[in-house]
Amino acid sequence: MKSSLLRQSVLSPAIVFVSVIGHSQTLQDAIPLTNNEEFEQADKIFKVLQLSQPTAGNVYFYRGENFYNWGEIDSAQNMYQKGINVNALEPLNYIGLGKVQMSNGDSKAATDNFYKAKTLAKGKTPVVLAEIAEAYISLAGKDQVPSVDLLNQAVSLLKQAIEVDAKNSTYHLDLGDAYLAQNPTDGSKSIEEYNTAISLDPKSVNAMLRLGQLWRNARDYKTSYDYFIKAAKLDSTFAP
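Above: the chain sequence. Below: its structure as tokens.
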């Protein structure tokens, strides 16, 4: 992609247009679209970002994540690998590649890539720790994947990430997910983490949604309804 996307021999009107768009769109515009399941729109922005930032490995990772959540696993794997090819020092793409490998049953290759990501990040970059934890949570319970071990590792990684950046609401949200996956019949720890996420980010639709789902599962429909209403008021277009 680095050769096919970055053709500068002819400065056509289309390339000028793409260049203008590239300066007005950022990862912060695209990632929420992925979270809102607007995968096609997100991909358009990622394409433009790759044109303007052809060696930015994190752009390839988040485009790969968009494909992964879109269900386009082969495209996701291809994008992670391209990210490694253009910038071998960006740790995130090793996590994406490892996630695909583990889902395909190649746990050794996945573990090697997760280790490589942590090594490149020197074990202290919270987003890297959290992304590995998210991969473990998403993979737990799938064929050939030992759930208990992965979830224990996810909890440990997220606690490490929170030690470095305690005010990141997403890490608390993920930790709540890990706790709930560990013990679906006891949501007390998850509630605590989701509430912490809301205290750090009162506009966290995801946290409101999680609490609504948790209380629904507990058959406390009044509390569940209240959280769903709060989530809807924060963002009525939120697809999940």
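Confidence is low (pLDDT under 50) at residues 1-23.
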